[in-house]
Automatic annotation (TrEMBL):
Residues 134-230 form the Acyl-CoA oxidase/dehydrogenase middle domain. This is glutaryl-CoA dehydrogenase (ETF). Residues 20-130 form the Acyl-CoA dehydrogenase/oxidase N-terminal domain. GO terms for molecular function: fatty-acyl-CoA binding; flavin adenine dinucleotide binding; glutaryl-CoA dehydrogenase activity. PROSITE patterns: ACYL_COA_DH_1. GO terms for biological process: fatty acid beta-oxidation using acyl-CoA dehydrogenase; fatty-acyl-CoA biosynthetic process. Belongs to the acyl-CoA dehydrogenase family.
Length: 395
C-alpha cells in the first residue's frame, strides 16, 4: 500500500507548496515509518509493545525536538516538523505521539522555561534519544480543567516536596525526567499558583505504572503517576514558567503536531481503501469502478487535502510568529474529526476484511479516538472557538 502515497501526492501536487528542505525532512520520516515501523507495528499493537530501540534511531535522524534550536536540536521549521508528524502518524499514532511528548511537550517546556543549566543537562541527551522525557499535567479526575489540579509542591528548607497523582501521562514509565506541574503557595513561588518541576524519575516517591487494558495506542505507553513526598532541589523548578500559561503553551506545540499527524492517519486509511478498491473484484470488475465507491474515495481525498492545506497554512503562520491558539484549535478539531470519518469510510470499503489487522484502518480508528481526546477534546476546542467568536466564555 505504500506505493499509493505518491499517487495521492501527485493529484494535488503538495510538493509545489513546500521547499526542498521541507520535502527532505518529510521523506526522511517516511522512510523510517515504512522501513522500521510498518513491518512491526501490527505485532507491536497486538502485543502492546513499545519498541524502545526506535527512540535512539529517531534521535539519530534529528526528529526529536527538531523544531527547537541549539542544544543538539535541528532548528527545523514548523512545516518541516508538521510533515514529519504526518509521515510518522501515517504509520501509527503512537510514534507521532512519542515525538510530540518528547519534543513538543517535555523538551519544549525545558527549552522555553528552563534555566541554562537545566537546558544543558537534559536537552542534548533528549535530542539524541539517549534520554526520554514526559509531561505530567493531566490528573485522575479529568484533564480538561488543569486549574483544578490537586497535585501540590511545598517548600521545605532549600527543597520542594511534591505530592499528588497524574494520569494518562505518555511515556512516564520509560522516561528519565518528568516535567511535573503542581500548585504551590503564592508566597513560595514568587507569584503564579502553578509551577513546573523537572523531576528525575529515579527520585524516591515517584512511581509510574503503565495503564493496562487499553484498546487504543497499544504500541505506546501511558501511565498513572503517584507522587508521594517527592523531594527535589530548588534547581528543579522551571524558572520561566509561572501559572497555566506555561503548560498551555506546550500543549499548543503538541496540538500543532496533531493537526498534521491526524492527516497522516487519514491518508493511510485512504491508501488502504484505494488499494482495496482497485484490487478487489465483485460482479466481474474492481469495486472501484462503481460510482458509490468512487464518490467515497473522492470525498475522503478532498478532506485529506483540505486538512493538509489547513495544516500548511497554520505552519506558515507559525513560522511568521502569527499563529494563535484559536487557529490551532480549528486545526486540531478539524483534522482529528475528519480523520475518524475517513477511517470509518475506509473500513466500509474494505468490508469484512477491514476489521482485521491485514489492513491498518481499525488500528488507526482506535488510535484516533485517543488523539481526539488528548490535548483538548472536541468539546474543549469548540468552546475555545465559541469564546473567540462571541467574546463570551462558556467554560
Amino acid at each position: 500500500m505504500t506505493t499509493i502515497a505518491p499517487r495521492i501526492d501527485a493529484v494535488f501536487d503538495l510538493n509545489a507548496l513546500i521547499g526542498d528542505d521541507e520535502r527532505e525532512w518529510q521523506l526522511r520520516a517516511r522512510r523510517f515509518a515504512q522501513e522500521r515501523i510498518l513491518p512491526v507495528i501490527e505485532g507491536d499493537f497486538e502485543a502492546a509493545h513499545f519498541r524502545r530501540e526506535f527512540v535512539r534511531e529517531l534521535g539519530g535522524l534529528g526528529l526529536l525536538g527538531m523544531h527547537l534550536t541549539g542544544y543538539g536540536c535541528a532548528g527545523a521549521g514548523a512545516v518541516s516538523y508538521g510533515l514529519v508528524c504526518l509521515e510518522l502518524e501515517a504509520a501509527d499514532s503512537g510514534w507521532r505521539t512519542f515525538v510530540s511528548v518528547q519534543g513538543s511537550l517535555a523538551m519544549s517546556a525545558i527549552h522555553k522555561y528552563g534555566s541554562e543549566a537545566q537546558k544543558q543537562r537534559w536537552l542534548p541527551g533528549m535530542a539524541a534519544g539517549e534520554l526520554v522525557g514526559c509531561f505530567a499535567l493531566t490528573e485522575p479526575h479529568g484533564g480538561s480543567d488543569p486549574a483544578g489540579m490537586t497535585t501540590t509542591a511545598r517548600r521545605d528548607g532549600d527543597s520542594w516536596v511534591i505530592d499528588g497523582a497524574k494520569r494518562w501521562i505518555g511515556l512516564a514509565s520509560e522516561a528519565d525526567v518528568a516535567v511535573v506541574w503542581a500548585k504551590v503557595d503564592e508566597t513560595d513561588a514568587g507569584g503564579g499558583a502553578v509551577r513546573g518541576f523537572l523531576v528525575p524519575t529515579s527520585t524516591p516517591g515517584f512511581i509510574a505504572t503503565p495503564i493496562d487494558g487499553k484498546l487504543s495506542m497499544r504500541a505506546s505507553v501511558q501511565c498513572d503517576i503517584a507522587l508521594d513526598g517527592v523531594r527535589v532541589s530548588d534547581e528543579a523548578l522551571l524558572p520561566g514558567a509561572s501559572g497555566l500559561s506555561g503548560p498551555f503553551s506546550c500543549l499548543n506545540e503538541a496540538r500543532y503536531g496533531i493537526v498534521w499527524g491526524a492527516m497522516g492517519a487519514a491518508r493511510s486509511c485512504l491508501e488502504a481503501a484505494l488499494s482495496r478498491a482497485t484490487s478487489r473484484e465483485v460482479f466481474g470488475k474492481p469495486i472501484g469502478a462503481n460510482q458509490l465507491i468512487q464518490a467515497k474515495l473522492a470525498d475522503m481525498f478532498v478532506e485529506v487535502e483540505k486538512g493538509i492545506l489547513l495544516a500548511l497554512h497554520l505552519g506558515r503562520l507559525k513560522e511568521r510568529g502569527a499563529l494563535t491558539p484559536a487557529q490551532i484549535s480549528v486545526g486540531k478539531l478539524n483534522s482529528v474529526r475528519e480523520a475518524l470519518t475517513i477511517a470509518h469510510e475506509a473500513r466500509s470499503i474494505l468490508a469484512g476484511d477491514g476489521i482485521t489487522n491485514a489492513w491498518p484502518v481499525m488500528r488507526h480508528a482506535a488510535n484516533l479516538e485517543s488523539v481526539r481526546t488528548y490535548e483538548g477534546t472536541d468539546e474543549i476546542h469548540q468552546l475555545i472557538l465559541g469564546r473567540e467568536l462571541t467574546g463570551l466564555s462558556a467554560f
